[in-house]
Task: structure prediction
Amino acid sequence: MALLLRGMAWFGLYSFLVLLPLAFALWVDPIATPRGFWTEAATGAGFVAFTLCALEFSLVGRFRAAAEPFGIDALMLWHRWMGIAAAAFLALHAGFLAIRSGATVQWLDPFQRDVGRATGAAALWLAVAVVGNSLLRRRLRWRYETWQLLHGIGALGIVLGAAVHALAQGSYSRVPAVRFLVAGYAGLFLLLFARYRVWRPLRIWGHPWRVVENREVGDDTFLLSLEPPPGRGWHGFEPGQFAWLITGRTPFSLEQHPITIASSAEPSSDGRADFAIKNLGDWSGQVVPALRPGDPLWVDGPHGSFTLDREPGQGFVLIAGGIGISPMCSMLLTLRDREDRRPVLLFYAAADAGALVFRDELDALAAEMDLHVVYVLEQAEPGDDAESGRVTEDVLRRHLPRPYRRFQFYVCGPPSMMDAMERILPELGVPRGSIHTERFDMV
Ligand SMILES: Cc1cc2nc3c(=O)[nH]c(=O)nc-3n(C[C@H](O)[C@H](O)[C@H](O)COP(=O)(O)OP(=O)(O)OC[C@H]3O[C@@H](n4cnc5c(N)ncnc54)[C@H](O)[C@@H]3O)c2cc1C
Result:
């Protein structure tokens, strides 16, 4: 309930901030003679586009308090949709103005002499480029880090361009208070950007974690054990949370990857944290396997709300596919260490028996706690002791215990599995509030 209220409060604040400059400008209303529908509509669209852009960074700037009620993946999705909405409002702004005074190609020229118009045109083109580049990122085969850099620079250009355009060109921004608001939003964006790109890295620069162990645990997956800098370990984390691992010469490096903590959340004497990392690209396939004991690396975390500590339940059903087993490991180890007696049913799906990591550890855990593991293998061999195929409604029905509707469900795996579970579980009568998901492909 508290989380729901906090979520509503954050959403209310966000909506208020999106509409504030427009509402304020209308209230002050400095324009004595009515300017006609298309001009007013263009101004309204322009204000909303600007505030949406200026607030984009607040959604992905790793603000724990704001991310907690929604989950980082939901915020990422919102960031994406608001980016598209902002670009659409920018296009409407330009379109309405063109309708009013007849479209001229010159308006779209970002190199024209008039600074107010040039910055407006530049912001519009940048918005098209940033949104297009994001929607087509996978198809264009950008390196993730290259894309992220271009995305950040483009966003900076849009907000600054739109702010200068509004200040130089806008009729409403003749009022000092409106000018102050426009400058304030641009300033807020710069402040959040600086906090993320400068302040955070500076704060952790002198305190790298160290690699204690890095070993292959099968299926192209490495288990990386990290030790915190003396006196700078975490004051705890929740099972299922993740951290950004930052490799490179400094924490300003663009190589920052979200990886789930696979170890128990119960405090240990050395404060170590384990991360299971599967080879899915250049960083996980080349940088991670090359890490050696003693190597430094920065850790930004813990983050995330995919955790079983926040939900009361009579028991748990964990559904994992591939490396989605990682958060489940942390949850299981934590429940074992806490001597939690509640029943746990784990469905663990993989291509074949060779692709299962931590099988020995899971079987050992099943002997220590009330855990039942159902392996689901696409290519099951006789003797694998596993369901054959994928996690389907049938497989779930066969194994779910009778009071499963009062259990909490956690799902983490490839997109096709996530989509299937989000459809099947409600059909099985599991309340939506009891279904928790984490998408590793959220970007
Ligand atoms: C909350 C969360 C927890 C995760 N936990 C684990 C885990 O425990 N073990 C594991 O093996 N993988 C985990 N992942 C996935 C992991 O972050 C990516 O596999 C990894 O970043 C790939 O990087 P790469 O350079 O090797 O591959 P690339 O080829 O560069 O990227 C492959 C895909 O991974 C995603 N990705 C890459 N870099 C980032 C980034 N900096 N931020 C967000 N997404 C990125 C993008 O969708 C990209 O298309 C997690 C992802 C998320 C979002």
In short: The chain is about 50% helix and 15% strand. The mean pLDDT is 91.
